[in-house]
Structure to design on (554 residues):
């Protein structure tokens, strides 16, 4: 092949890499286009009055600080008291967890039960299985609610979940976990917004698709029949036991429903380090799920929708996000050196895509949960980071940063400055992930630690999640030991 | 008319009675409320379209 042919092939490959970088946004927009459909196509039309006998399993390891409020709120649920029993499975806690539970059990005889594991530390799934084995030993339980020790159920939440079980085709129901700290810091506010996108919006879209990616770990309600059909126990081989059960339920032909009006409040990490630890575990769990169910993806089947093309697109849009960001940067920087004109043309032509994706997703998210929007609207706007917003503006108005802004202070950008600026923009998707690690490392460092939060707003919460996900993939690939790291909670949910 | 001692036949207090009628009413109300997400999506699409138009004209 001639040099010009090689050059054309190289340019085509680089343009393709840029296009690959857009795929997650396409998946995101697709999900968001389904959100309004949920207004008219949802499972509420098949819901009905149904109040089964519900056993609540609460796995607890050193949860003394948060359990009292959670149990008290469970006792105040608007649900028939004779049809609700709570079983706290104490995973060999070393704090006052057993004492707190015993005190509550004395206040509510027969309604709160303490189950203690003398040898713990094996993780949440093992703890849950201890409780589930106990519950399946008699036939009192008609439905099982699995929750976390620190979440707070709104009084109407449980009955808004059980109503879907009136439809016998439903195997499990999940609720909307909302960040509910009394005084949320920056990270908790970002998480609050993230949960609107990842749950209130994405799960509604998945309801419309007919396939749910994950029952929230803190709010999953199973019918007894479903629990028995998936083996009467929770899988212990992955770090994503809730997703595993969600998949098994659907593969077995029962549907899973998300009810966005059944609200559960949770305290989420308020530091980058705690978030990093939690999300590495989640992302490694997703790698395991992706591998374990590898014969499901993109293989439409009767009886479930997990193999549907649209669900696969959505799943892999999230799964591949760090790689697609790298692909976009490599493509743009490669084009800058191989064919500068093409690089500028591709970058400039995408202006509408960046704006449309950002505005459509942000406005929808803020409107879907106005309560969270009041607390987290700024974090919503800053979700992609100041850097990414600069990038979008540069795409729409290339002269803005190169001529207009320097002109305001009487300066003129030199040719070298223009080159550096352009490369900086093209590198930003990768650079933002690298800087996310700096945000993590700076946190807690004397004096310099104050820069961590402002830098987070520059980098963006989205790129931070991508960096964490990439770290998780590397750890998984290297076979780093799986550790069940508990996220520290302090009981600051607004009860 | 609802008397002062009578429970209202709609709203959270009525739904909390957990009677079949109350639960069915809550479901119907939630179904209507769910239509808000349709409004949210349409409103977001309109805002997006308008902004794209403004930027396209200004370019």
């Amino acid at each position: 092949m001639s040099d010009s042919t090689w050059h054309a092939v190289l340019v085509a490959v680089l343009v393709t890499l840029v296009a690959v970088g857009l795929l997650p946004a396409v998946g995101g927009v697709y999900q968001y286009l389904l959100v309004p459909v949920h207004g008219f196509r949802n499972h509420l039309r098949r819901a009905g009055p149904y109040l089964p006998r519900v056993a609540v399993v609460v796995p607890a390891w050193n949860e003394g600080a948060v359990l009292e409020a959670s149990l008290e709120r469970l006792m105040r649920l608007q649900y028939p008291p004779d049809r609700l029993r709570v079983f706290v499975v104490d995973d060999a806690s070393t704090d006052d967890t057993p004492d707190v539970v015993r005190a509550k059990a004395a206040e509510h005889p027969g309604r709160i039960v303490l189950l203690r594991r003398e040898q713990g530390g094996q993780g949440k799934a093992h703890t849950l299985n201890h409780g589930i084995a106990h519950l399946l030993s008699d036939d009192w339980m008609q439905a099982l609610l699995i929750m976390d020790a620190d979440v707070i159920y709104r009084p109407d939440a449980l009955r808004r979940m059980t109503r879907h079980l009136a439809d016998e085709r439903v195997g499990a129901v999940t609720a909307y976990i909302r960040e509910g700290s009394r005084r949320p810091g920056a990270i908790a506010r970002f998480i609050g917004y993230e949960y609107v996108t990842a749950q209130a919006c994405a799960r509604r879209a998945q309801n419309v698709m007919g396939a749910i990616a994950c029952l929230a770990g803190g709010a999953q309600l199973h019918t007894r029949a479903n629990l028995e059909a998936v083996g009467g126990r929770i899988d212990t081989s992955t770090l994503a036991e809730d997703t595993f059960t969600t998949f098994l339920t659907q593969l077995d032909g029962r549907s899973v429903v998300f009810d966005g009006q059944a609200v559960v409040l949770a305290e989420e990490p308020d530091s980058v380090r705690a978030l990093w630890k939690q999300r590495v575990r989640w992302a490694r769990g997703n790698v395991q799920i992706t591998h374990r169910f590898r014969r499901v993806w993109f293989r439409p089947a009767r009886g479930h929708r997990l193999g549907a093309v649209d669900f696969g697109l959505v799943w892999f849009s999230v799964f591949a996000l760090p790689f697609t960001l790298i692909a976009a940067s490599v493509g743009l920087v490669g084009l800058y050196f191989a064919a500068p004109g093409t690089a500028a043309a591709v970058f400039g032509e995408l202006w509408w895509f960046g704006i449309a994706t950002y505005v459509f997703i942000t406005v929808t998210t803020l409107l879907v949960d106005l309560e969270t929007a009041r607390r987290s609207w700024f974090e919503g706007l800053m979700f992609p980071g100041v850097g990414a917003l600069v990038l979008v503006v540069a795409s729409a108005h290339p002269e803005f940063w190169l001529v207009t802004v320097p002109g305001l202070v009487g300066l003129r950008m030199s040719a070298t400055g223009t080159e550096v600026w352009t490369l900086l923009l093209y590198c930003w998707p990768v650079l933002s992930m690298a800087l996310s690690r700096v945000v993590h490392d700076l946190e807690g460092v004397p004096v310099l630690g104050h820069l961590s939060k402002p830098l987070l707003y520059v980098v963006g919460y989205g790129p931070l999640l991508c960096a964490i996900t990439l770290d998780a993939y590397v750890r998984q690939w290297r076979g780093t030991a799986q550790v069940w790291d508990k996220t520290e909670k302090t009981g600051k949910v607004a009860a | 008319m609802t008397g002062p001692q009578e429970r209202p036949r709609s709203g959270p207090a009525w739904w909390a009675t957990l009677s079949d009628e109350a639960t069915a009413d809550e479901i119907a109300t939630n179904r209507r409320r769910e239509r808000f997400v349709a409004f949210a999506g349409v409103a977001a699409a309109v805002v997006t379209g308008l902004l794209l138009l403004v930027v396209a004209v200004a370019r």
Remarks:
- The radius of gyration of chain A is 24 Å.
- Chain A is about 55% helix and 10% strand.
- Residues 48-307 of chain A form a domain with the Spore Coat Polysaccharide Biosynthesis Protein SpsA; Chain A fold (CATH 3.90.550.10).
- Chain A has a mean pLDDT of 94.
